[in-house]
Amino acid sequence: MSEALITLTDDGLYCPVGGFHVDPWNPVPRAVVTHAHADHARWGCGQYLVAAPGQHLFRTRLGETADITPVPHGEPVDHNGVRVSFHPAGHVLGSAQIRLEHRGEVWVVTGDYKLDPDPTCLPFEHVRCNTFVTESTFALPVYRWEAAGVLFGGVNDWWRANKAAGKCSIVYAYALGKAQRVMAGVDATIGPIFTHGAVEKVTRAYRESGVALPPTRPVSEVVTEEKAKGKSKAKPWAGALVLAPPSADGSPWVKKFEPKSEAFASGWMCVRGARRRRAVDRGFVLSDHADWPGLLTAVTESGAGRVLATHGFASVLARHLREQGLDADVIATRYGDDAGEGEEGEA
C-alpha cells in the first residue's frame, strides 16, 4: 500500500502530502471541513475549505472574519498534488464527504452522514475509494431508523393531541440540522411554530441557503410583543410547536409554556433507558447519522478494501467488518457523539 493520505496528529486528521488537516480539533493553518457542527468546524483556523452549500452556515458559526473558501460539490481542488473534492454526506445542510486522491490512491473521509432522505440537505453520494474513513456513532444492530412518514406521523399525532388538550408541544432538537429537519417534516397546518433563539439563528442561514421551511417566529419576539400589548398573562403557546435545543430542557426558559408536553428527538431515543434519563413525555427516534444498515451499505458501496472507523461504536463496526473479510481498524478521534454546536450535539 502507498503512504497513508491521512495520519492522526495531536491536532487531528492530517494529510501530510497535501499539508492540511481534515476537521481538526485545534486551530491549524489549513482546514478542510466536512460540516458546520462545532466538533468538526473549530474556530480559529487560518483557512477553511468547505462545500459551497454550507457556506452560510459556516459563516454563521465561524464569524465574518474567518477565511472561508466554498467549493462546489465534485469540483476538485489541488493541494500540493492531492486532489480534494467534496461530495454530499446527507448529514445536515452543506455536509460533505471529503475525497482525497494522490498517485492513484483514493481515500474518503465521511465526517458524519446518513443515507435516509432529508429535504433540508443533499442526499448521500456513494463515492468509490481504496480507504474509507467512516463515523460509527450508531454502529450497533439495535439502531435502525423507521421511515420518515411513520416517524413524523407520530410527531403530528402527538402535536394534535396536545393542541386538543390546550397544551404547548416542545421538541428538544439540536439547533443545526435536527430542528430544521423537524420543521420540514411536520404538518405545519396544525399550528404555529416558535423557535428558541439558537434554533432561529441557524434557521435563518438555512433560508439564506435556499432551503424551504415553514414559517417560524422566535419566542423572544412573541414575548416582547405580548409585553408591549400588556398581555403578561396571555398564553399564545397553547396548540403551538416550540423547537428548542436540548440545553433548554429543565431551564427557567421553558416554564412560560405551561401547560406543556415535552419530547426529545434523537437516535438515542431508540433505547428505552435513554428516554427515561431524559425525563420527557415522548422520545422520537430521529437521527442525522446513519443507522446500522446504513453504515454497512455505505461501506459496501464505497468498494474500499480498507475501512477506518471513528467516533462512536468504532470497535464494534471494525470487528464486524473484519469478520466479513475487510481490512478494518479504529482511528481514535475527539469528535463528540453528543457534541455539535456548543451546548447542542447532533446525534
List the keywords.
8 helices; single chain; Rossmann fold; 2 domains; Metallo-beta-lactamase, Chain A; 19 strands; 347 residues; 24% helix
Shape: globular
Instruction: Tell me the helix content.
Output: 10-25%
List low-pLDDT spans. Answer: 338-346
CATH architecture of the largest domain: 4-Layer Sandwich
| CATH superfamily placement of the largest domain | Ribonuclease Z/Hydroxyacylglutathione hydrolase-like
Instruction: Just give the CATH class of the largest domain.
Output: Alpha Beta
Approximately what portion of the residues adopt beta-strand conformation?
15-25%
Spatial order of strands in the largest sheet: 7-8-9-10-11-18-19
InterPro entries: MBL, RibonucZ/Hydroxyglut_hydro, Xnuc_lig_assoc
Protein name: Exonuclease: RNA procession exonuclease-like protein
Keywords: Exonuclease, Hydrolase, Nuclease
GO molecular function: exonuclease activity; RNA endonuclease activity
What is the gist of this entry?
By secondary structure, the chain is an alpha/beta fold.
Give a structural overview.
It comes from Gemmata massiliana. This is Exonuclease: RNA procession exonuclease-like protein. GO terms for molecular function: exonuclease activity; RNA endonuclease activity. The protein has a seven-stranded mixed β-sheet, with helices on one face. A six-stranded mixed β-sheet has the order 1-2-3-4-5-6, covered by helices on one side. The chain has a six-stranded parallel β-sheet with strand order 14-13-15-12-16-17. The two termini are 34 Å apart. The protein is of the alpha/beta class. It folds into two domains: 7-143 and 289-330, Metallo-beta-lactamase, Chain A (4-Layer Sandwich), CATH 3.60.15.10; 148-284, 3-Layer(aba) Sandwich (Rossmann fold), CATH 3.40.50. Helices cover 24% and strands 24% of the residues. It is globular, with a radius of gyration of 21 Å. The protein has helices spanning 55-62, 148-164, 178-185, 197-208, 219-228, 272-278, 292-302, 314-323, and strands spanning 7-9, 12-15, 20-22, 30-32, 47-51, 68-71, 77-79, 82-88, 96-102, 105-109, 131-136, 168-172, 193-195, 217-218, 241-244, 260-265, 282-284, 306-312, 327-330. The longest helix has 17 residues, at 148-164. Mean pLDDT is 93; it is low at 338-346.
